[in-house]
What we know:
Low-confidence stretches: none
Distance between the termini: 47 Å
Order of helices and strands: HHHHHEEHEEEH
Strand order of the largest sheet: 4-3-2-1-5
Number of strands: 5
Helix content: 40-55%
Amino acid sequence: MNTPFDEEPHRRPGLLSRLRASFLTGIVVIAPVWLTIWLIWSVVGWIDSAVLPLIPQQFQPQQYVGINLRGVGVIIFLTFTVIVGWIAKGILGRSLIHFAESLVSRMPVVRSVYSGIKQISETVFAQTERSFEKACLIQYPRRGIWAIGFVSTTAKGEVSERAETSGDLLGVFVPTTPNPTSGFLLFFPAEDVILLDMTIEDAAKLVISAGLVYPNEKDPTQPPE
């Protein structure tokens, strides 16, 4: 006979709870795969719709195979881009680009649009060999509060000369959560920057997940266990 002071026996989850847990687990597994496939499929279709109308009708691939092959526009775009890049590296290509830019610079509205797009393109694509050096820990926005940052480079020129510090000044990008593409560029004295062993990728995951995905505590240079 049970008394009011007896502990309730451990109850097994009901059928509905188990189904709900299985459903959520399935969503976690399926969602990233489905979204990745959908995104790639959509981008390929968008490139095809932009490139294929520029191809003469007699050269359209569906004229020969009878069906609309998805991805042909992507192949044409990649081939054309590689050829243009190869030509642009030569003397003739550089001369043509310089001549075209001199013409664009004389057009008031077009000049502003072109220069802005060119600057963004060079930042995103032409400097892909540059990357953050290390993940770091800094005190921001005040002492006693710590934030994850990424060391970009050592400050040079006027920034380094005018800063009131006796040592090196490091440029640190402090990303926001959960969107790490926005953030703040801050300059810290080298002695105030604590370099971390974790990789750039693990530090980015830590920021994006709001601290939920943590690197391997035993060896930060390795993925989470």
